[in-house]
Design a protein that fits this description.
The complex is a heterodimer of chains A (about 130) and B (about 130).
Chain A: H1 19-50, H2 52-63, H3 65-92, H4 99-128
Chain B: H1 7-12, H2 22-47, H3 53-61, H4 63-91, H5 95-124
Helix pairs in contact in B: 2-4, 4-5
Classes of the chains: A mainly alpha (about 130), B mainly alpha (about 130).
Amino acid sequence: MAQVKRPLSPHLQVYRWGWHMAASIINRATGVALAFGSVLLTWWLVAMATGHDYFDQVQGYAGSIIGRLVLFGITFALMQHLAGGIRHLFMDAGKLYELKANTSSARLTFVFSIVMTIVIWVAAYKVMGVM
Amino acid sequence: MTDMKTPLAKVHGLGSAKDGTHHWWVQRLTALANIPLVIFMVVSFVGNAGKGHAEWVAWLKQPLVSVLVILFVANFVYHMRLGLQVVVEDYVHDKGTKVATMVLITFACVLIAALSIFSVLRIAFGG
C-alpha cells in the first residue's frame, strides 16, 4: 500500500486561521521568546551584583533604541503569555470550550496584552519623568 | 506454570509509572504561582524605571524583595524547563537530537537559576 503523505501536527499550513488558533500558537511562541528574555534578566542581575560600573553599562544597553525595542517585545510577550496562560487555566478547569466563549476569550488575550504593554510603558516613562 | 510472555509483554502488563500527569500538573502549578510573581516584577520594574545602581541595590536588599525575586526565578525557570520540553517533544523527532537538546536546555535552565539566585543573595548579604 502506498504511503500517503498526510500533514503532521501542528497543522499550521492546512487550517484556516482563527483567534483560538492564533492564541494557542502565540502562547507557545511567546513562551519560547521569554526563555530568551530570561537570559537578559540573568545578565541584568549578574551586572547588578558585579558592581556600579558594569551595571551602568548594561543599563545603557537596555536604554538604547535596540534595547528598548527588545524590552518592549518582552513586555508584550510577557503580557500575552500571562493572559494566554490564564485562559489555559480556565480551559484546564473545563471552561471556555463553547465556540463563542473560546473565540472571544482568545481575542481578549490580545486586547489585554496590547493595552497592558502600552500602560506599562507609559507608566515607566512617567516614573522616569520623560512623559 | 511456565511464563510464555516476552520481556516486553511483561513490562506492558505492569501498567503506568504513576507519574503520567506530574509534568502537566507542575506546569499548571508553576503557571499559577507565576501570576502574582510576574505582577510583582512588572510593578517593581515600572516603579524603579530609570534608577541607578545604588537605588536598585537598595530595592533588592529588602528581605521580602530578595525572597520574592528568588521565588520568581526558581518558579519561572521550572515552568520554562517544562514548557520547552513540550516544544522539543513536538518538533524534534530524532531521538538522539531530542535527548541532546533536552540535556542542553536543562543545563541552561540550571545555569540561569544559579547565576540569578547567587546574584540576588550576593546583593542581599551585602557583597
